[in-house]
Amino acid sequence: MTREDYDFDSNHINDRNNSTISTARRAERVTLNIRGVIYQINTKAIEQQPGTLLADILRNHRGNTIFDDEIFFDRDPFIFNCIMNFYSSGHLHFRHCMCRNEVQNELEYWKIDSTKLAPCCWVWFGQKAATEKKCRAVSQNFTEDKTEQLLPPNGWRIKLYRIMENPNSSRLAYMWSIFILSIIGVSIFGFILESLSSCRVPRKRPIFNETDFRTQHTNTLLINANTSNPHLALTLIDVITNVILTIELVLRFMVTPQKGRFCLNILIVIDILATIPTWLCLILFSNFDHEGHVGWSLLDDYPNAFFAFIVLRSSRLLRVFRLFRLVRTQNTIRIVLLSWKKSYKELLLLCGLLTIISTIYGSLIFFIESSEERFDTIPMGMWWSIITMTTVGYGDEFPVTTGGYIVGILCAVTGLVVVATPIPVIVNNFSSLSEALGINMELAGRDKQIKLKESQDGVSKPAMSVEM
C-alpha cells in the first residue's frame, strides 16, 4: 500500500467516524421550531417526562429520520420557554403575567398534567381558576333576560316588557321600577301604621262584647280588630296602592310571552298572595261612612266571619316580601344573596356547631342549675346557650351558682369563636364576587362600545361609497 493510499484510507475512516459521532450527537437532541424560534432539547430530558407529547413522538419515531431535521410547531414560543425549562429541570413554572387560559391550552396541547405545577405557581393557577369560576357565576346570575327574545323585535309589547321587567334597559324603565318600589314602600308603611292605636277609629259597636272578649283573648291584634278599624286615610292609601300594584301585575302578565313560567315565579306568587287578601278585606270588611266609622260590613251580619277576617288581614303581611323586588334593581343585594349561596357549606357548619354546642351547654346548665329551679328543661338551657353564644343576652334566664357561672363563661367564649369562624369566608366571597361583577360590567361596557362602533361604521361606510 502506497502512502497516498494509506492517507486516503485514514481520511476516509476519520470522515466516517466524524459522521457517525455527528449522527449520534444529533440523535441525542431534538431541534424544535416554535413559530420561527429554534429550540434544542436533549432526548434524555424528554424521556424523563413520559406521557407528554414530545415523549410520545420520540417513542413512536425512534430510529427514523424525523429528528434529523427540525420539527415545526405552531405554538406560542413565549409560553414554550416555560415548558422547555420543565423538560430541562423537571420543575414547571409559569410567569404570573401570562393568561391562565392560554397556559391551560398549552399544557393540554403538550400533554403536561397541570398537577405538575410547582407549589408557588399552583397557588397562582388556582386563584386564577377561582376568579374565572366566580366571574362565570356572576355572569350566569346577571345575564340578560332571554324571554325578551321571544317577543317581536318591534312593537308595543317588547317596549312595555322592557319597562316592566328590565330596569336597566332605559331611564324610563329605571324610573318606573323606582316608582313601583316607592308604592310598595308606602303600602308597607301604611300597613305598619295600622297597628298604632292613634291611627285607628272606633267602631260604632264592637263585633263581640268587649269585656267578655278581653277575658277570652289577650292578643292585641284580635282586641283591636274587635273594637276599631284603621283610619279612613290609611284605607284610602291601601286602596290606591293596591290598585296601582294590581294594574302593574296585570300588565306584566299581558306582555310576557311565557305566561306559565311567569305565574310560577316566586315573586309573582308573593304578589298574587298579597293582592287577593287585600282586596277581600277592602271589599268585605271595610266600608266607612262620612264620619270615618264603619257602615255596613260582613262582620255586622256574620260575626262568626271575624276569625276569617283576621286570617285575611294577617295574610297581608306577605306584602312585606315585595321588597325582594330590590334584587332586580340593586346589584349589591344580588351579590349578597349570591355570596350566601356560595357560602352555604360554612353556614351549614355554623348551624351544626351551634346545635351541638348548645345541646352540650344546655344539658350542663340544666343539671347544674336544676337545684335552684332556674332551668326547668334542657330545651330552655339550649335557648339560654344559643342566646349567650350569639352575645344577645336577653336576661330572661341566667345562672346563679358557681358552676353555672363557669358554664356561662365557657359558653360565651366558645360562642365568640364558633360564630366568628365562618364570617371571614362569607366576607371574602362577597368581596371576590363584587370584584367579579366589576370585571363583568367593564367587559359588558366594552362590548357595547364595540357594537356601537361597528354600527356607526356600518352606517358611515355606505355614505362614503355614495360620495365616491
From TrEMBL:
One of its GO terms (cellular component) is voltage-gated potassium channel complex. It is a multi-pass membrane protein. The keyword Oxidoreductase does not apply. The keyword Ion transport applies. Residues 174-435 form the Ion transport domain. Pfam families: BTB_2, Ion_trans. It is found in: Membrane. Residues 30-120 form the Potassium channel tetramerisation-type BTB domain. Keywords: Ion channel, Ion transport, Membrane, Potassium, Potassium channel, Potassium transport, Transmembrane, Transmembrane helix, Transport, Voltage-gated channel. InterPro entries: Ion_trans_dom, K_chnl_volt-dep_Kv, K_chnl_volt-dep_Kv3, SKP1/BTB/POZ_sf, T1-type_BTB, VG_K_chnl, Volt_channel_dom_sf. SUPFAM superfamilies: POZ domain, Voltage-gated potassium channels. GO terms for biological process: action potential; protein homooligomerization. This is BTB domain-containing protein. It comes from Capitella teleta (Polychaete worm).
